[in-house]
Structures
1.
Amino acid sequence: MDILTLVYICLFFFGIFFIVIFLVLHKRYLPLLYENPKIINHPSVSFLVPAYNEQDSLQNTIEALIEIEYPKNKKEIIIINDGSKDNTLKLAKQLEKKYKVIKILDKPNSGKANSLNEAVKIAKGELIAVVDADSYPKKDALINMVGHFEDPNVAAVTSRVLVKNKNNWLGKFQVLDYSIIAWTRKLLDFVDSVYVTNGPLSIYKKDVVKKIGSFDPKNLTEDIEITWHILSEGYTTRMSYNAIVYTTVPEDLKTWIKQRVRWNLGGIQTVNKYWRSMFKKGAFGYFVIPYVSASFILAIIGFLLMIRYLWIKGSYQLIALYYSFQGYDYFKYIEFSISFTLLLFLGLIFFSLAIYYYKTGFKHSETGNKSVLKILAYSFFYRALYVIPLIIALYKLAKGDIRWYTK
Amino acid sequence: MVYEIMKTKSRIFLESLVITILILIIGFYIGMSIETYRTNKIVTYYKDYEIQALDLKLQNYYFQIMDESSCKQAIEQNFIFADDIYTQGLVLEKYEEANQISDDLFREKKRYVLLKTELWLNSLLLKQKCSNPFDTIVYFYSGDPKNSAQVAQQKILSNVLKTVKEDKGNTVVLLPIAGDLKLKAVDLQMKVYNIKTLPSVLINEKTILEGFHTEDEIKSYLKK
């Protein structure tokens, strides 16, 4: 058995292992999917809305927060204007006049993490709810989340993010993508492994955030970093599957790639910061860190194998084309043949499990049942695009070009 | 209570690990069974060819004692075996490409190359005895190509030669022989005919064509 075959087998082993974990979790915990603990106390909540050039979406976000179901005297909204160059500040002031629960924190531009840290200092709520200025929580989102804090060990609760704008193919694929992300995150919740508290809507215990030193401004994904920080301190993070928030997703490939490059870079930064906790500290050390690290490694290995495959196949086609100018009948010899191999068989098992997993995920999301054809398109086309931002992120990392993405 | 929950959660990972190992064992079992079946099939083919080659060799001894009138029958037998070994060779090559776990086939492959070399020598004898009645094309290729460019070049050349053989039918004996398996008989032949690079095509033991050549070019060196 050569090294390449071993690499493939390792790849399939870990791929199948992770999918099986999710399928077992699904089988065991499906009845608890929409269960949330009842709210006994109503802790006060400060909504922190960092805004940088958000004049188009800020009003709708704030109005969604005004309408959110929660005792009025327990809510405050802090809009943090992060040195916007458009009319965000003017709009925020108008909203402040209209709604008494709103406060404005105006500061020079220094990034989202710094904005949140400034706001945490003046927030009065026991809980702080971070809401992106282009996201719109449903009315019952908060009451579906706050109950989790009855458990004294829970320090953060996140929501299910759905796509607001699904106007083109990219938007439609992201609807599927966000469904799978949310589904996976909820399954991870059952093993205390929610490792991202998303930007569109997540709630944190303010005293815990202060205790751990707030959000890390050096990290490109402050939401991932703070979640890992919370987990590393021994607290628990939760996800409420019926706490829904709609968010605006990138509508063109360039913006999508830029967003995903940031996610990848932030993810790698976070793994790099916390990898020493591997195989320590419960689910965080024994599952979250190995799982996320393995996901990156598997993605890179998968990409390299794909390049190798394309190189072998592509070089044949190129050489054949070259010889076609010298009289070789290129089209006569085009052939598509697949020989059965053990690796192909293992790959098929892995792929079938992945399709089944996606199908299950869609069934329990807002998208509803999806045909295998659509799942194949999602897997082969959209998921294949994942590799582009990953490679750009690795390139930037190799060049030490991380600051470019930091505000 | 917390301990109980933790125990349940750890059990999920353990359960998943057991299921994964089971899936892989079943996958390996089925995959290996199919590969073993295929390997056995190839080994059987090789053994059959060995018997066929021995049969042909004995026939040749007989034909050598006989006069030139036996040429037709001898050539006919030679072609039947040559065509059979070539056609099956194409199938076997695909099987070998797909066989990723077992190295068992390598020894068998060497025997197969030696059989083809023997067939070539047999064809040479027939050509001498029966006044040059057919063309021989010996295609020396690498059994262990060093890079994807060489793989591509060999595949292209193999396609071209396949077409030549299809067009020319029973006037050409086509013998693809791996030239880098460290077989002394093959090495000797390559030295005798001055074959220095792989892939190369040797036509009628005279013309050496290195690298890519079109069907028409190759055909232009044939007599028939």
Note: The mean pLDDT of chain A is 91.
2.
Amino acid sequence: MSIMKRISLIFRSKANKALDKAEDPRETLDYSYQRQLDLLSKVRRGVADVATSRKRVELQVNQLEAQSTKLQGQAEKAISVGREDLAREALTRKSGLTSQIADLKAQHAQLQGEEEKLTLAQQRLQAKVESFRTRKETIKATYTAAEAQTRINEAMSGIGEEMGDVGLAIQRAEDKTAQMQARAGAIDELIASGALDDVSQVGAGDDIARELDAMSSESDVEVELARLKAASQPQAIESGDILSESPEKTTTEDEQK
Amino acid sequence: MIVRILGEGQYDVAEDALEQLNQYDSAVEAAVEADDPKAFAAALTRLLDGVRTVGVPHQVESLDESDLILPPADASIDEVRALLSDDGLIPG
């Protein structure tokens, strides 16, 4: 029973020490109730804080995934125009993002877990605070000094333990969230500085995009030319003699120039 | 008896299940003493799973004190050491 016993003893003595003891036991009850309400609003704030961090990480995952999709598109485009070097570069950058996305997703899962835990802790504390309030009113209504102390002690020790537990849960969630916020902050800075999106913003200082862009405008010109040429052909067809007419026409045109 | 898993809540555990839980508990203690995080995590998981299996959730609105208090499921070996020291983890 060693570990369990030792933790129990120390935890309980700490939780009891944390309880205010007033001269009038009835005041003790009111003080304690006030502290319970304070702790309840603290745990509610804790849930909201963790949710904010979780949403921030979600946003970052979405941003990085969008960039990753763009890089994939660039790689495909590069391959289609025969530039394996560019495709390789795009895929290399994409794999850098992939590990960052995986890391963020793990953080997201952890934050979600903390959020659920704190929400449940809040519900448990809420239930106990409600019981305490009822018990407190009963004790105060039927107050006789002789038996009050025992009943107060019973109510207080049970709620004190719960408060210690919830306090610990809040502290652990805060610690974890703080670590992740530091990392999330670093990624936000990277995104804001453009170090991450340069890679995929077409025409905005990114070499892959610039080269692909240049190539695609070249190929756009070719496509347009081909279209114009094709558009001039039907006239030749209408003139009837396809096979001889059009080469002759070009020669004539050349001669005219 | 009432067993609390920190961060999780209270369970009612039958007395005759204690012998088994005590064995799991000794493994946790040995791992803490040996400073072996891997063995510790496995032993703690076994202990907490044991409580969850044999225990039933204690009435949530009760104001009963627990007989035993166990570390949170994701506690590290250092956190358990802190719980065992007087100026440890519990916010005063």
Note: The longest strand of chain B covers residues 2-5.
3.
Amino acid sequence: MKSHFEHVLDMKLGDLDRSIFSDPQTFELELERIFARCWLLLGHDSMLPKPNDFFTTYMGRDPVIVTRKADGTIGCFLNMCRHRGNRVCRADVGNARAFSCPFHGWTFGNDGRLSNVPGYKEIYLEKLDLDAHGLVPVARIDSYKGLLFATFDTSAPSLLEFLGDMAWYLDMILDRRAGGIEFLPGTHKWLVHTNWKFPVDNFIGDSYHGPVSHKSAWVSGFEGMPRRKSGYGYEGFQVNPGGGHGFGVRWAENRDQVFEMALPEFLDYEKERLEESISRLGDLRGLHFSPMHASIFPNVSLLWQGGAMRVWHPKGPKLTEAWGWCFVDKAAPEAYKREKALHMVQRHGTSGTWEADDVDNWVQCHSASEGYVSRRYPQNLEMGLGDEINDPQSIHPDIRGRLGKFQSEINQRGFYQRWAEMMDDPSVPAVPNMSRRDACKVSS
Amino acid sequence: MSAGLDLNLDLWFRVQAFLVREARLKDDHQLTDWLALFSDDLRYWMPVITNRIGRDLGKEMSAFGEVAHFDDDKTSLTNRVKRLQTGMAWAETPPSRTRHLLGNVEIMAVAPDGVLQVRSNYLMYRSHLEHDHELFSGYRLDHLRPHGDAWLICRRDIILDQSVVTQKNLGIFF
């Protein structure tokens, strides 16, 4: 096992050590140093419209229940009975005031409190400490413009600090219109036999693969990433706001170029919302930057025009569970929302004509990290190295963060650098301590 | 038709033969011929399945209009076939080897205009490249509209038994 990760990415050559995708001990350490520390996306506020609504998901490999408590606030707890560890909730979604463990009947309120234990009086003689055996809560839960995040680390920075300038840029997606976004009902879930970092890498900055990977979709009626008809069609940037986050944008000089880039089925809506977007976001974020693809560290990805939001749940070094949603402006007309759902399903979902080819590439790439000899040969991430745009403010005074050309691997490099920093930080995540015997500490 | 009491064996046999041929066209990658079995006003839909308990039992299937696995009309289904035929659809290059098995064929209803509602169960084995393989199971509810001496499929609802799709994609047809 690697003792440190500082050198997995050679920043002079752009070479990346391929073994980080397949090494089981690296994966185990990721669960501790990445997934037990970072703010992880749970979903969106719109998934819990009513009091007592809940859904279940994962934070790293830990199953959690996310609840809208009776007082309207959100709770998030390990989906694990404190008695034997059985899952107390076997549903994906629903509405419940309490969760009763199917094993022995310990019952927990949707605020996590242990409210009923069969035989509490007769068997436990009222000695069982109910307060100490509630569902294990996350350390903190917070939302950014409707996106729900939680972290298991009590010493984690605030969500806003964690997102940094990415939050300001995410406004291009989350705050384009009054009311923000919503997730349309329905979650795609599917298993991909690859390491979770491959898809994150693809979404954070790989504008290079489109014309090859997705040509079959483009030429068959599934246009999905509109290009400008003028110029060479790829005018834009990779934006690296730091923190391991990143995204790519197309650049529009003016309103006409925004409309030129819109897919025909979305053109009317683009015209309807553009002035509101510019007045809410300013001209950099509302007009010139047209976001394409993004990843939020560590395991969230999205496509703005595709309406696709993803979490890549790590299941093992070679197994990732993809969860996908379709997001739309809440204020959009119903007909547009329906059109967007079709667009997402036909391109970026489980049967997606774009998605299928991406997934297969990641599966094949993963194989190269498993062979004894092949994994000794690094990945090449040198695109745009030393060719970053040194004075982004000359492009636009409001630009924050670092800027690469549209075809540049600046964001992948930023992701792996952040990943390596966290993997090399030996401080143990301070997970919430619910136990009288201090047993909740993560053993190293 | 209830409990087979007035089973029209000839009709049942012809429906079964129609569906078996439809399955063979998919397995043999004769997708242009396969498309010709669908009407122009087709709805080809596979909902998402969610695990539910208690009061929500029975609500496992997503509603039409919500995010689905497949939500196609004739145009988009035709475009999916075109994509596979470009030779650049890498996830199906080379194509998956599939075996569509169907059974439990039941004619559930006959509408006044002659449209049959046919329910059938399917098992579909898929093998792709070296090691990728999966067994898909579920049922379909087809609407078959009389056309010449056979039918056109004007609606196909496909229920996949999985809540988490355990394959890398649904890049094949059901």
Note: Confidence is low (pLDDT under 50) at residues 438-444 of chain A.
4.
Amino acid sequence: MSYLVRRLVRAILLLLGVSALCFVFTEMAPGSFFDDMRLNPQISPDTIAGLRAQYGLDQPLAVRYGRWMKSALHADLGYSIAYNAPVAPLLLSRAKNTLLLSGTALLFTWLISIPLGVWTANRRGRLLDKAVTLLTSFLISVPELVIAIALLAVAVRSHQLRVGGMTSSDVEGFSTFQRAQDIALHLALPVFILVLCETAVIVRHVRASVLEVLNTPYVHAARRYGVSRSRLLFRHVLPVAASPAISLLGFSLAGLLSGSLMVEVVCGWPGMGPLILEATLSRDLYLVIGGIMLSALFMVGGNLVADVLLFTVDPRIRKAGTDAS
Amino acid sequence: MRAKTLTLIAALVLLHLILLFAGFFAPYDPTTQSRELPYAPPTRLHFRDSAGLHFRPFVHNWKTSAESDISETYKEDLSQSYPISFFITGSGYKLLGIYESHLHLFGTTGPARIFLFGTDGYGRDEFSRVLFGGQISVAAGITATLIALFAGSVLGIIAGYYGGLVDESLMAVTELFLSLPWLYFLLGVRAFLPLHLSTLRTFFLLTGVIGLIGWARPARLVRGIVLSSRNRNYVLAARAFGASDLYILRRHILPATFSVLLTQASLLVPRYIAAEVTLSFFGLGVNEPVASWGNMLTTLQQYSVLTSYAWLLTPAAALVVTSVLYSALADVFHSQLESLTT
Amino acid sequence: MKVFARLTLLVCLFAGSCFAAAPAPDPAKPGEELFRLSEVSGLYGGHLTIGERAEPKTLNPVTSTDAISREVIGRLMGDLIEINRSTQQTEPALAKSWKISPDGRTFTLQLRKGIRFSDGHPFDADDVVFSFTVYMDEAIDSPQRDLLIIDGKPIQVTKLDQYTVRFALPRPYAAAERLFDGLSMLPRHLLDKPYRDGHFAQAWSLNTPSTAIAGLGPFRLKQYLPGQRIVLERNPYYWKVDRENQRLPYLDELVFLFVGTEDAQVMRFEAGETDVISRLSSENYNLLAREKSRDRSQLADMGPSLEYNFLLFNLNDLRGKKLDEVAGKQIWFCDLKFRQAISAAVDRASIVRLVYGTRGAPLWGNVGPGNKLWINQSIPHPPQSLETARQLLKSAGYSWNSSGQLLDPAHKLVEFSIITSSSNTQRLKMATLVQDDLSHLGMQVHVVPLEFRALIDRVFQSFDYDAAVMGLGGGDADPNPEMNVWSASGTSHLWHLGETQPATPWERELDQLMQQQMVTLDYAKRKQIYDRAQQIIAGNLPFIFLGTPNILAGASSRVGNFHPAILDPYTLWNSDELYVRGPATERAGTR
């Protein structure tokens, strides 16, 4: 219990630290929200200065941070300059969609990666292993954006999937089942892209750690004693090979909100991605910081889950942890 | 050593030799623009003509014809053929940055040029650009990976081995690192630096930035491994026998991390090479007209380029080849290490 | 039984309205002064879909700053006087006629009688006065406020009677009518309260219910799905009618889809999911043109735009700024012969060919061939000549060392950087081509792409740059919007910002000419003055003009009355006239 309390305290301190550093970083970056109006010869600098004052952009850093903290405690998380609306509702409405996308992708990624990693480790050096290695090399090397555009082009031309958005325009008359079907069709492409790119990384790690265990003396011995492959796998190999996989799961969970940004933008999925990307580029500060805080929350949560799993899977860690320094 | 390992090593050595001596293997300077030939498809090599089979391949010049008002199309000008010469004198380059030379492996003497991988939007030879671009990209990718893995493993080992408060604070720092808006930090860094950075400075900047941001993940992975391996029976036994921390780290803990580190290495090198694409958006990448796989991959992010000019995909192909070779190398190291520890 | 049948009918009707079919145009009422477009005809019904790169941020016409918000708002709102994008001339809109006083300082506008907002509420002079009060309110800081301040004094707006409004300008202003385009008329009955309560900036944000928004445009808000699309439906009270005196617009619905990137826009258009695409790059245009034979979509190349792209040198006063390195290079930049040499060395033909895929035009001045009304045809258009460039440099005291590098009169190597926006691939390409051209003169030029706002910061704020490739213009054909670029004290006087007095004699003359043309009401005289201004600009090269892209747009074959223009909004400016051909509309025919 005290462990969880410690982690909670750590989480709060982390969020405070992240928020403070965010403000410092955004101060470092040149430019501000109303800069593109300077290029318009028909707008005077007085108007721009007036707008900056209206949104408090000309206040010193400490004052702005203080105001934002107050607003955060009121669950508003500041005010978006572009949308002229409080940040929290903007973020939350889109965070739901992002979680739907990345959650589904996470599920499929792990459902595919673990069996595939184990399989290729078992059949090391054979055709399947080589093919998978080639494919994963390809997926890691080519930038995600390029893969996304290529797959988008294929999907659009095939006319099979619904591309763009989360719902079709004629969604009015649909029953619940039809709505779910509609969303699923829209989900298909972005999930596919995400799964492709993430599976490549995880398969590699799973394969490597399974391989490592498969080649230890006790496994060799057990095999010679006639222990069946599957029993060996599930009772001996997997638990030991689990450690890097659990850390990776932690990363996957941590990146639930932030990892799908590029895919959302390219596929037009109405998640946090397009919102945060535009806000970052246009310096809509509080929206950006709000998004970062939300992602940091998931980061902390994901790592917590990973650590708890680590300790559960290998109880020796926890025991040693309490009596070592 | 087995034949497979030998071929792998030979392939890697060949790749690096070609990149290192790019000036020799590439027929042209990577920045020379042939403005009358933008987006020209790869030059076709011919061995046979009306006179019969030739030992030396020859090429034809490109002729542009505006078939419709849509775009110019390239047709071979069959009236003249230009044989390829080997060990030809061409544009100047600096071998290893010191020795000035004009010798090229192959090229043409006549007005026709040999564009093995076609040309880009400025009419620059894509083949030459891929070779020269690989120099900085592969070097930057490897260096950045080494930095990130070194820092990550050191910190991960410390966190995992000593546990407790050390572990908690280091992991808190990694969480902080992974949450921060690096985009703004990078913009701030860019604003702080002088406008023009020489290629060397850009290289250090690239590797520094990527390494700085990239240590957090390997650290967490390594820490996980160390946590589970430090309480193995053999470690406890060694401790009971009075082995020092350093001995245990070197003999038992470190080898346990190699698997993860090697896997990470094979994953990170291509990732970091491609990361230059994002960095160049902030002005921190290699600038035009210098070639690098990163800034060539940026042009691939347009749909029209992907569909119309397939030959511009060659830097991605080169990156994939490099990645495959390095993955195979990591695998070889892996099995070598296993045979050492078993 | 009969009761049951009636009940069923009622339920069906009720259900039908729940599914919200687009409202039919309201039949014309007596006393309603409608605007008849005598050349327009089309088919009623259907919907048009257009893909946008991002979503609008607000529906508030007074505070919106980004282009997409303005594009959507423009369909919902109406103006007093509109600029017809095809002819580029003003035409009456909500104001059916107007009288200008002989001194050009007073405009008396007659409003159309009997017009209603999209919620049925009548429109009259009170709405006009309210709208202008809001636009000119200092506390709101509307970007459009500055249009209404001439010479530091605001325009006076007075209501003369229920349908007459007088505008008093502090001094005569040429093309004053053009100011009214884009100043949407606001509904006083909906916005007066938020204004008086001081919450005007929060009014009409995206989550406002559609019943709280009303305008005089062809469409009204139906539905907004965050991150996905915004759907507009026909305004049943719209005040324009077509040739057969049928109320416009033809479309039942206009849908804006947020597709994310330009590539996604092209792909969705190719697949037939969107009907209109605007501002294509030439590569995408050629891509679509190759598919054209299959689906007979309409692609239009409207010719050169009004935008001008240029190479800018930092001629700012850097005293007290600690930018010694840049200041040292300004000795070269300030020399006219240096700039002339660079202009002679630039290969504009290649820029048009390689950057714009031949769909563009080279520029030697700020007014290009797209602006037929104002272009000065007598400005010379010399082709690239490295020889001329070398001669100019030699005569200015420059020389070359043994490796062919250029040395200035003090024997320092000529080396500088050109900054440009990393997100604008066309300008980046231009910079690379220029860099290659200048290397033939022995100059060491570096291209430095920067993130957009970082670029703006350097050009407007810190002045820490040598040269930049940027673009301006495109707003309107009239010279007045350019005042701030060419006036010495102007805020867009990029090469030398913050001048209190013109720094050079030619800038002084340019200043006077711009001031003069602003108050000259006669077109011929004004053109003469502006011609001279263009001559000075082209001769003294504060900007080295490079080129301008063509406006490229496309629509699917089922879209009718598609007339893209070179002024923004390129394809939707006549959204009230657009119609779609298809089984539904062809069956319905003209109502």
Note: The longest strand of chain A covers residues 79-80.
